[in-house]
Each structure stands twice: as C-alpha cells, then as structure tokens.
Amino acid sequence: MLSYSTTAIEYDEDTILKLPRRELYDIRTQIMAEDESPSMEPKYGLTNDDITPKIYEGGFKTWECSIDLAHHVAKQLKPLAGGQGLPNGRFHMIEVGRHWIKTEHRPLPVVLTLCDYNISVLTHSTIPNLFLVWCACSSLLSDSPEDDIEITSELTNRFLCDLADHNIRINAISGAWGPDFLDLVPQVHREENIQAATLVLASETIYALPTLVPFTETLVSILRTAEKSGGTASGMVAVKQVYFGVGGGVEDFLRELNKIGGQSQVLWEKEGVGVGRVILGVELRFGQAL
Questions:
Q1: In whole angstroms, what is the distance from residue 81 CA to residue 110 CA?
Q2: pTM for this one?
Q3: N or C: which end of the chain has fewer CB within 10 A?
Q4: Cα→Cα distances 211→73, 178, 243, Å
C-alpha cells in the first residue's frame, strides 16, 4: 500500500496537472518498520532537520525548485508527449538516451538514471513516486488529492511490462557527486550504433560550496562524455539565487561552470517572492567537447 498526495502543476492556462508523490508519513512508517537497529537515535529523514551534511541531503522533502523544474519540463514536453511525459518532482537527474536510427520492432530506448545521496530516498521515495506517476498516466489513481493505492504483484508486473514494451530502462545511483559517481552512470553511447541525446535535470544541488564544485564537475563531465560519443547533451539546473547560511548560490555556480568549460542561460526566473529562483540551461561552450 502506498499513501500519496498530489501537487498541482500548472500545465497551461486551462490545465492543472496533479503530480502524485508518496506521503512523508508513509515513508517514515516503512523506515521505522524495517529498522532492526537497537539504537534509539532517530534515523535520518525522520527528524525535523532539512539536511544533515554528509549523512542526509534532504531527499525525502519536495523542495520548491523541484516543483519549478517539473512545471517547466512539463510545458516543454507538451508538444511531444501530450502531457504523458510529466517528470517526477523528486528526480535529481534524468539521463535520456534515444536511438537516432529507428528500429523496426522496438520503440526508441529511453534510459532514466535516478540519483540521490541516500539509497533509502531512492528505494522509499524516488522509485515509488515514479511508479505513482505511471499510475496517474495510466488512470489508476482516484481524483482525491489524498489517497492510497494497493500495490499488488499484478500491478507491479503491469508496470514492469509497460516499461519493457516502451523500451524504458531505469537505473538508480546513490552517493556523492564525483569520479566514483561518474563510473556508475550508464553510458548508452557505448552501445553499437547508438548516438544519444542526454538531458540532465537537477534541483537544489548547489546549496552549499562543498557540494557545488563536485556537482558542477560531474555535470560537465557527463555532458562532455555524451558529446565525445557523437551525441548531444544539455542540462537544466533549478536553484535558488542564494542559499543563506550555507554559502551556495547561482553566482558561485556560474563562476565554476565557466571555469571548466560550461555555459548557461536563464530558461525561467521567479523574482519578487523572497529569495529568487531560476532554471538554468547548461551546455558545453563551443569547442569544449574534446
């Protein structure tokens, strides 16, 4: 059983999409039920702390910029997917790989790489949320803003078969940004006769200086690897203009990005409501792929 609520995403002037996400209390209940540790210390993600650096990076919470990114991507996908390609607000990165050469019997492949610092976020939140989005697209959820759905073996098999039928592959990576992370990112470009279009989606990943630099280096490395293989690559990074008290922000990110061969443009911006928020389009500077 999954308990969920929906978040309203404005698709256009006449349409509001309801993005399902697993309820935090449901996640906490599962974590506590599975906990076999004798320690009485509260588990990460179960306290009121937003983050605990190098232990818990806030993945169970839906942050403002995640909603901004889901809204922006949904609008971009409208002419391509008719609204069925709605991204999950919990995704921190999605790598999409597609054949440029169509095959006779199979749809073009799509590779989703889902990432978070904590593996429990991936297993208890990210993947369940992906499943809930599929349920919504398959008209399996109720119209109620809060509800439960029973997870049966039949429903799970239907989900997996649907992924296989549409040639969608899902990978999940937990851990910090850096060289070890890059070694785990699937490179669909290595497969014979495949040139991939890679899109990296990231939200709230530059909130502190200790993580800003390795994230930026990881992002640029992914883009560079894709372009070296003959594909195309870009990213969308949704962030606040400044993160008070922890040192991160857009200015430092752009400085680091420019230093290592990247460039950006503002795709969307929200001002006049406390701390400003932006979505930055990121790509390599011309001639930087090598």
A1: 14
A2: 0.84
A3: C
A4: 25, 10, 13
